[in-house]
Amino acid sequence: MHARCPECGGALPATGDCWTRLLELLEIETRVLPALEPEAGMRAHFFAVATYQLQHPSRLTRETLDRLHAAVDEMTGPGAPPIAHLRREMGRFAAGSRKVTRSAPPADRSHIDKRWPVSWSVTAQDVTKRPESEYPDAVGRWAVATLADLRVALAATSR
Predict the structure, then answer these.
(1) pLDDT (tens digit, 9 = 90+) per residue, 65-103?
(2) Quick one: 103 exposed, middle or buried, by C-beta within 10 A (0-12, 13-18, 19+)?
(3) What is the reported pTM?
(4) Is the distance from CB of 114 to CB of 103 less than 8 angstroms?
């Protein structure tokens, strides 16, 4: 039996660190994204990094997690703005002395809503198993599935 990531529930890679999955996604991007129109490539990159972070929230402050959740929701919704708009907005959000990451022990979720999932219908591992030609669509579907999982979990009453 494979060890599971305490944040996304996916099987851990051989390294024992789920962060390796994000690196795998970025490696795929080096082969796939250059052939895409820039907007599509930047959008795919955003979905990969943002969705990974939503599924591994211990690394972010609560404020950053909330902003990232809203940004993914905005970018998957009807009439999504150009990615350049999002990049400017996120840059403004992270500017100055605002702290966006946490220096707590890995997987410390004490600052996260207890209803936040620790198991997801689609994970980075699922995306890395898809053919690389499907990568842009796969990361978009991953983002949408993650938002759906969050809606269900956060609508549940606290235990």
Answers:
(1) 999 999 999 999 889 999 999 989 998 988 877 788 887
(2) exposed
(3) 0.92
(4) no
